[in-house]
Amino acid sequence: MNFSLGFSSSAANLVAWSPNGQYLAIPDKNKVYIKDGHSASSLLVTFTCYKAVKLLQWSPDSSLIMTGSISAGSGKKTLSSFVSQAAVEVWNITDPDWQCKIELGSAGLECAAWAPDSRHIITTDLFYVRSTIWSLLNQSIAIIKNPKECNPSFQFSCDGSYLAAAERIECKDYLTILETRTWNTVKQQFPVSCSDMAGLAWVLTTVKGAEPYGLGVRVVCWTPSGYHLIIGSQDTKLRVMCHRTWEILDEQLHSPMIEKIDQEKTGSSALELRTRVFRVVEEVSASGVSNKIYSEVVQRPVQLYPQRNEPLKGAFSCVKNVSPGGHPCHRSDGQGFISNIEAGGCSGGVSVVLLSCDGLYAATCVRQLPCVVWVWRLPRLELIALLVHEMHVQDVSWSPRQARLVITTGEDAVFMWTPYGSLTVPLPQQLRILPTAVRWHPSGERLVVVGKGGGQFCVLSLPPLVRKWATEQPASPPQSLELAHLMDTSLQISES
């Protein structure tokens, strides 16, 4: 695998590929550098902003780029926020002399986003007083009053024809639908059934079928086909809902115990027979270099311990007894793990649900076990892999082209999983980067690796061997991790 040289940036966490993959935007203080997206080295144009860049987004058609300075008090909601005069600037990649500046004044800026047509921008004032739709064509505006403070507070339909906006009026939640061609209201302020809307997604306003289950819905995600809705709940259960009947097709618990099941046993619990458990361990090479690698755990049962104040090395074990002592938050059957949450003993639930581009796999995380990533096969929830790390998972991201998952934990390695198995990619010591986030190139052939603290990043190019390995459909799971060792020997630093 080829690593570029390390780059410094005051906002490396904002580094972004253009949607068409032709450009790479790198913000640094009050400048934005646009580089060639293929080599990440050729500088094409530089834009100078009026303030340090705190917001950066590409337009969907990759022709424009938006930068902004989020209000100093954004997120804190203090009166001192009004001292900072927020603004949004728009730049044209092909015409550097063209510029647009939207001054928001004392209203401040909470967030900003592009409309699907790449010619309108939506900004939300600090304190969620209003959201404004700005036209870059005729300088007209449309206003949505009293936007709801949730994530997201507005959502476009798949074809971009409609905008659904959540509103909060007199302590009640409402939904307004706008037509994006004229920005006229189609349906204004109709009430929703939930008491405190946490977000919205087309075509649902509330997850009706999930109301009788668990302690509430934390995250929802549509499959690419639109046939199924994946629901992560407060009770740490993952559910699959059918879009035709709104019925739950399957549900599985994020159990802290992977048990040994009788081969003749059938039913959902028998899915654990196909669960492969990978644990991060240290391996010392013949030259004395220590690297993190995934090691498959074949012993059963496997017990995962919720995080406490002790080091993470105590968060994993293979046990012979069904009742580990000293951990009252769960039992070997997994039910105590939930009963303690229901009793108010700890808060959490499913915090991440991410689907692969082909919709065949889902990666999930739960707050009670922040070092573990679950991988499920869809639409039936088959737990096929469990990835256990030594440190908290910082970022989980699927390739936009293949079923290939990348995980970062703040250690000096990037962790990968595909249907064929798992591997680790240690970062060269010369880079001095501890990865905490990644940004995939639209082609899936390279990615930006962002270092801890957001001050450094590098570009990781994936070789043809990994691309072939990740795209082929395996006839059966591999029985060894030989490929991980093979890949470790091909690391090199390039000047690109």
Automatic annotation (TrEMBL):
A cellular component term, taken from the record's GO annotations: MWP complex
InterPro entries: Centrosome-WD_assoc (IPR052778), WD40/YVTN_repeat-like_dom_sf (IPR015943), WD40_rpt (IPR001680)
UniProt cross-references to Gene3D superfamilies, sorted A to Z: YVTN repeat-like/Quinoprotein amine dehydrogenase (2.130.10.10)
Domain of life from the UniProt record: Eukaryota
Designated name of the protein: WD repeat-containing protein WRAP73
